[in-house]
Amino acid sequence: MHPIQLFQKFFYKLFLPALCLSGIKVFAQQHSKLVNEPVDISGDFRDFSNTLFFADSLASFNPETGSGQLKWKRNEAFSAHNFNNSMISYKRSFSNEFPAIEYAQDPVLPFSVEFTSARTIRVRANTSMQKTVSENSLMLVKEPVQDKSWKYSKINGGHLYTGAYGSVTIFENPWKIEIRDKTGKLLTQTRSKADGKSSYTPNLPFSFVRRASDYSRSIAAVFSMSPDEKIFGCGESFTKLDKNGQKIVLWTHDPNGVETQTMYKPIPFYLSSRGYGMFMHTSSPITCDFGATYGESNAMQIGDENLDLFVFLGEPKDILGAYTDLTGKPEMPPLWSFGLWMSRITYFSEQDGRNVADKLRKNRIPSDVIHFDTGWFETDWRCDYKFSPSRFRDPAGMIGDLKKQGFHTSLWQLPYFVPKNDLFPEIVEKGLAVKNANGTLPYEDAVLDFSNPNTIKWYEDKIGGLLKLGVSAIKVDFGEAAPLSGVYASGRTGFYEHNLYPLRYNKIVSELTKKLTGDRIIWARSTWAGSQRYPIHWGGDAETTDKGMQAQLRGGLSLGLSGFTFWSHDIGGFTMKTPEDLYRRWLPMGVLASHTRTHGQAPKEPWEYGEDFQIYFRKAVELKYKLMPYIYAQSKIASEKGLPMLRALFVEFPNDPGSWLVDNQYMFGSDILVAPFFETAKSRSVYLPNGTWIDYQTKKVYEGGWHDIESGELEVIMLVREGAVLAQVKVAQSTGEIDWKNMELVSFAGKSDNATVKICLPADNLVKEVLLVKKGNKLVISKDPFERKINWILK
Questions:
Q1: What DSSP element (H or E) covers 327?
Q2: DSSP string spanning 116-176?
Q3: Which of 30, 51, 478, 641 could form a disulfide with 414 if both were Cys (CB 3.0 to 4.6 A apart)?
Q4: DSSP string, 624-688
Q5: 255 lies in a domain?
């Protein structure tokens, strides 16, 4: 017997059963040095001890169902050497199992292509013959149904499906999928081993890996990238907006700031400037290598044993709409949430909250929310869901009095419990926390297991008591540290539950708040795919620096390109007292967002910076309240279409090449372009898409292209595109006091003969369109769906 065969015989007969019986299951990527270190699985595809299988050819295919069998050829990684240089390469390998007759050298496994809408293609592939347990996905709003509009044609060597917006070709040998738009332009295609022949650099093709450590598998969906292709999305990423050339690990993580590559809100979705997008339907860790390792390859290395990939066709708005049709669109948050949230870390007493509310009203600064952060418990940060009896004499009375002043109350909490917390023994004894394989806690803290129905009920009782007391919103903080080593009530480990944790967390609080208050609202930090159904999310603990401000905007734009309509951030940054100059520049960016909150290290209150700053602060916040009809209507439209309120320029202008290059400006809704100041200056360079633009503050007119534009009274560039009409109201001290029956229509129509303005009254949440036509030199209303119930003032 050959020595290798002898080794195989004894290894598989003696040692492997012992490992299996011991219950050891160690993913190679779980060898983390730090607790909750992001899991990057890409190294498993380069590990010499693992076996790789490259997608090779179709063994069978049924065109009617789109399903068949895909053959995978066995390969292995090895170290190649030349001229004192080493690199990892791949070569054909052969079965190392014993008895060899029992195991496939080159497995043939299930594969399918389906169509779930006129724009949506679903590609699935298995890496083993084991049947997966069918269960409802938390990420999807419903199980997709088959779309019958796609037409099939048999072609030489393959199969062609043609739809209204593009086509999919499946080649049999070698196996390949080509995706084209409706004009026939190639958008992307799977990459095989043969596609790398022109390169001396070995690169990974469409494949899966079987780990030597435990025989678990992960799949790499590898597609081509084109010259000048740009990639956007993947969640609230704080790096450059275009992800081409970046390697991104999708693993929920507390980055302790906004200037690193890790994310509070990773989302397994991206869109391309080529006219397609992709959603990786899994909760496992993912490493997206967008041309970082090899320029022509988009390698989505997915921890899941099976591939479930949705591909969307169209322009950015089409893609975001199709993606959110699948994973859900947000319900409109309440009107009051669009006002100013006044906060710091932290108000420690009832008197603190009352004093801030009184000063806001006394100084005529519009505001709708007073937020109590970590200090409303007896011990700061020790969450026990009880107001400190020594500092909050009458919480219900305080909440009621604030409500009379036009304020809603928001409270902070978290799902982690330190051993000194009075609730800790109860949580452990009742089995409400995530456990280890041995039944103990993975961490010193108890982390609530939101896959456990008993935990959900216990948690709802705690949160529900606060909502019944009159609290309007719960801050759903943290949620990024679900233990990787944990065993969850769902029956799964942290490998699949870690990324789902924020989605479960968001869902529980959002649905309970909706049930008890009627409002769909939370204030959350962490997310996964589907969390956009549960607004609102904010950008985490930004550094109090110019770079922190820039990164915060990039994160918001990136999250918006990942299916999220509503987003906010801590104005001025979180980590330390905000310098006044930075506060002045950051404030307009915070006001010109769907939701506006001042929060972070004290002080945040404008009067703490002096009279001049308080006047400036008031004017900035008044701008938002004045624009509330525009903001509310645009938010309603965006929520129905799955679009972000804070959107990258190319979302509105996909045919303008320059718009794809800009990540330091944004569109606020469809009509207002905003260019913040990220450093002290009187002017900045601004890119304007093709057309005419009018400065909201100075009324100066600009044509498309690059301009150096001076700031107005507020330190921001704010331009309205020609043809727009902005609806405005008289400034009120809270959204509850806004007079919706008297509305200004401010025209930026320019030379246009007609214009429209969309209005959505909070009373019915229906968007209606008012039509204006030019009569002489003025616009007059020609169609009023409100039938004169609103007094229009044309300007």
A1: helix 316-327
A2: EETTEEEEEEESSSPPPPP---TT-SS--------EEEEETTEEEEE-SSEEEEEETTTTE
A3: 478
A4: HHHTHHHHHHHHHHHHHHT--SEE-HHHH-TT-GGGGG--S-EEETTTEEEEE-SSS-SEEEEEE
A5: no
- Domain tally, the chain: 3
Q: Is 260 a member of any domain?
A: no
* Residue 537 vs residues 22, 47, 73, 552, 603: alpha-carbon distances, Å: 43, 38, 45, 13, 23
**Tokens in use for 736?**
């509850």
CB 495 within 8 A of CB 284: yes
List, in order, residues 6 or more apart from 260 with CB less than 8 Å away.
238
Strands (E), 296-418: 297-302, 306-313, 340-342, 369-372, 408-413, 416-417
* Measured distance CA(256)–CA(264) in Å, rounded: 9
Q: What angle do CA 427, 377, 481 make, to 5 degrees?
A: 50
Q: Is the CB of residue 201 less than 8 Å from the CB of residue 88? A: no
- The answer to whether residues 28 and 88 belong to one domain is yes
Among the options 40, 195, 352, 480, which is catalytic? 480
Query: Residue 572 is part of a domain; what is its CATH number?
Result: 3.20.20.80
* CATH number of the domain within which 723 lies: 2.60.40.1180
CA dihedral 579→581→586→592, nearest 10 degrees, is: 140
Q: Are residues 628 and 685 in the same domain?
A: no
Structure tokens at 729: 């109201």
Note if 764 is an active site residue.
Answer: no
Cis peptide bond N-terminal to 205, omega within 30: no
Choosing from 56, 318, 368, 541, the catalytic residue is 541
Return averaged pLDDT per consecutive 10 residues of the chain, 795 residues in all: 39 36 39 84 96 98 98 95 90 92 95 98 95 80 96 98 99 98 99 85 93 96 98 99 99 98 99 99 98 97 98 99 99 99 98 99 99 98 99 99 99 99 99 97 98 99 99 99 97 98 99 99 99 99 98 99 99 98 99 99 98 99 99 99 99 99 99 99 98 97 98 98 97 99 94 91 97 91 94 94
The reply to whether 541 belongs to the active site is: yes
Q: Distance from first CA to last CA of the chain, Å, rounded?
A: 94
CB 350 within 8 A of CB 606: no
C-alpha distances (whole Å) from 69 to each of 112, 115, 126, 162 are 8, 18, 10, 22
Structure tokens of 714? 């507020």
Please check whether residues 637 and 764 belong to one and the same domain: no
> Cβ(218)–Cβ(209) under 8 Å?
yes
Same-domain check for residues 523 and 447 = yes
pLDDT at 795: 87
Catalytic annotation, pick one of 236, 350, 352, 477? 477
Query: In b/e form, how buried is each residue of 480-503, taking b as 16+ CB within 10 angstroms?
Result: bbbbbbbbbbeeebbbbbbbbbbb
What length does the chain have? 795
- The residues, any chain, with a CB within 8 Å of residue 147's CB and separated by 6 or more, are 115, 116, 117, 118, 120, 163
How high is the pLDDT of residue 134? Answer: 62
Residues 6+ apart with CB under 8 A from 632: 335, 338, 760, 762
pTM: 0.95
Matching residue, tokens 């202008």: 653
pLDDT of residue 32: 60
Known catalytic residue at 753: no
What the block records as the tokens of 486 is 């944990």
What one-character DSSP code corresponds to residue 12? I
Domain-embedded: residue 340: yes
- Residue 238 within a domain: no
- Alpha-carbon dihedral sign for residues 589, 554, 270, 139: negative
Q: Name the helix (H) or strand (E) containing 755.
A: strand 754-760
DSSP conformation letters of 176-229: EEEEEETT--EEEEB--GGGGTT-SS----SEEEE-TTT--EEEEEEEE--TT-
Domain that holds residue 367: 335-645
